[in-house]
Amino acid sequence: MFDPRPLVDTATAIAREAGALVQRMRASAVVSFDTKSTSTDVVTAADRASEQLVRTRLSELRPGEPVLGEEEGGLDGRAVVEGLTWVVDPIDGTVNYLYGIPWYSVSIAAQLDGVSVAGAVFEPATGRMWTAARGYGSFLDGSPLRVSSTTDLSLSLLGYGFAYLPERRQRQADAWAQMAGRVRDLRRAGAASLDLCSVAAGRLDAYTEHGLGRWDWAAGGLIAAEAGAVVRLPGSSPELGEDATFAAAPGIADAMHGALVESGYGKV
Ligand code: IPD
């Protein structure tokens, strides 16, 4: 049987090295950046250097295996190809990185026929490493992770993110205002991979966001699922919107999903 665990070792080793580079670049001088689709869609020199490093190491350690990365793309414009591919977010949470908020990651996943089988999410600012292999559980620095056992929507903490387009953000804010009255509280932390890891650790009871790239959820989604979360990836939850990602502790997943639909979130 296919054992994905060696792929986790590869991902963690490379994520640590890329994370060290990202930290060195943060410490030196001014962080240079450009914007992409909108002013909230940012890329720094460190994003590009980190992706270059990850690609170089993967080509050395896993020659011939295709790589999809946030900054350079790949897979000839396709999201999924047959066989093993690597999916890389060289810095997830780039806006946090730009502002010196220590909540960003290097996220590396291996996917088999488009399904995540191994993942590592490394926090360069703290040195924490989140990992999972499909069928083998998920871990923070080697300690097993488990989602929260909450069963009460009104006592749940919901993480969320905003899409890039200003008009859509406004509609999302309206839906979030509705949700604020239904849950204990809301958190917009700014790094999707770490939001998903937070669900895995029970630091959030649920998390949802529209419009994520595959690199944002490929590792974190597996880490959440392996910790027991109900995970819906883009394309699998039309009531929340075709491009919705959703992860929740099983005890509140249905109630949270229903409340989000009622808030109008699925139509933003
Ligand atoms: C972004 C972060 C952010 C989320 C955005 C993502 P990036 O990733 O994960 O939390 O709201 O949708 O694009 O651009 O920093 O890699």
Condensed summary:
Helix content is 35%, strand content 25%.
Distance between the termini: 43 Å
Number of separate structural domains: 2
CATH architectural label of the largest domain: 2-Layer Sandwich
Low-confidence stretches: none
Instruction: Kindly estimate the percentage of residues that lie in beta strands according to DSSP.
Output: 15-25%
Element pattern in H and E = HEEHEEHEEEEEEHEHEHEEH
SS summary, helix count: 7
| Ligand inventory | D-MYO-inositol-1-phosphate
CATH fold-type name of the largest domain: Fructose-1,6-Bisphosphatase, Chain A, domain 1
Q: Kindly report the name of the CATH homologous superfamily of the largest domain.
A: Fructose-1,6-Bisphosphatase, subunit A, domain 1
Helix content range = 25-40%
Structural class: alpha+beta
Biggest sheet layout: 7 strands, mixed
CATH class of the largest domain reads Alpha Beta
Shape: globular
CA radius of gyration is 17 Å
Strand order of the largest sheet: 3-4-5-6-7-8-9
Number of strands: 14
What's the pLDDT, averaged over the residues? 95
